[in-house]
Amino acid sequence: MTKETKTSTKSHKKKAVSEQAHTLPGAFDLFNPSVNIIRNNLTGFLLLVGIPLLLLSFNQSFEWHIGAHGYGHKGATSIVGIIGFVLTVLAAPGAIMLQLAGARNETLDYKEAFRDGLDYIWRFIGLALLSGLMLIVAFVLLVVPFFILLPRLVLATYYLIDRDLGPVEAIKASMADYKKYKGTWGILGVNVLLALTGAVPIVGWILSTALGFLYRPAGAIRYEQIKELAKGKPPRTPIEAATIAQ
After folding, report:
1. pLDDT digit string (tens) for 116-134?
2. Which of 52, 69, 107, 122 is 20 to 30 Å from the Cα of 242, by its Cα?
């Protein structure tokens, strides 16, 4: 092997290592650091995410059970569902703050997260309505645009809260970064797989709810990874480094 060939081989190897270091990890690789984020801020996640999620899941499961067997009264479960929905909306911005703090391997008091999150509530609702409208229109026009648009909107809430943006600006920022870095299809896929386990009565519902809860911070980790890529750095967040060090 000539000197030039050896030099070329080393150059290609260095380039391959560099490209690998700047490649977003797989969606399943986000599970363990997501669990650690929740462990580090357990009380906050139980109150801001766990309780609303449990109420919504309870409502959905029993609505299905009542409908399938044709007995019982839906009024009680409907009230539970409404309460769960309202709590989910009110707590969602604070929960995003908890996730972002966790991805940075920081802790955040749940009271502070909830209180500060309320400052974003109307923008959060506006973003949810605008995103929902865009997805509905895309689906009605043709199914393909829906699946093109969906991964571009997944992380928009993180842009809105972390960068203090309006709904439109958050969507634009999310779309721009998706065009450069991608990285959300895997998270969507994992969430679909976790949701499918809920098709099994009782046990599946419990498993689906628990795993969905544990995987919830994955979006925040991916958002922080993309921020690192945008700076020209390897996409490793502090919580991932702490997880590997354990």
Report:
1. 999 999 999 999 999 999 9
2. 52
Evaluate whether residue 75 is within a structural domain. yes
Q: How far apart are CA 34 and CA 243, in angstroms?
A: 10
Distances (CA, A) of 225 to 99, 143, 182, 209: 13, 30, 11, 26
On the CB side of 169, CA atoms within 13 Å amount to 9
pLDDT in tens, 41-91: 999 999 999 999 888 877 666 555 444 444 444 444 578 788 888 999 999
The residue segments making up the domain with residue 208 are 27-245
Q: How far apart are CA 235 and CA 23, in angstroms?
A: 7
pTM of the model: 0.85
CA distance 105 to 153: 25
68 within some domain: yes
What secondary structure does DSSP assign to 178-204, as a single string? HHHH---HHHHHHHHHHHHGGGSTTHH
Query: What is the C-alpha R_g of the chain?
Result: 21
Q: Is residue 231 part of a domain?
A: yes
Say how far apart CA 245 and CA 55 lie, in whole Å: 36
Model confidence pLDDT, tens digit, residues 17-38? 344 457 899 999 999 999 999 9
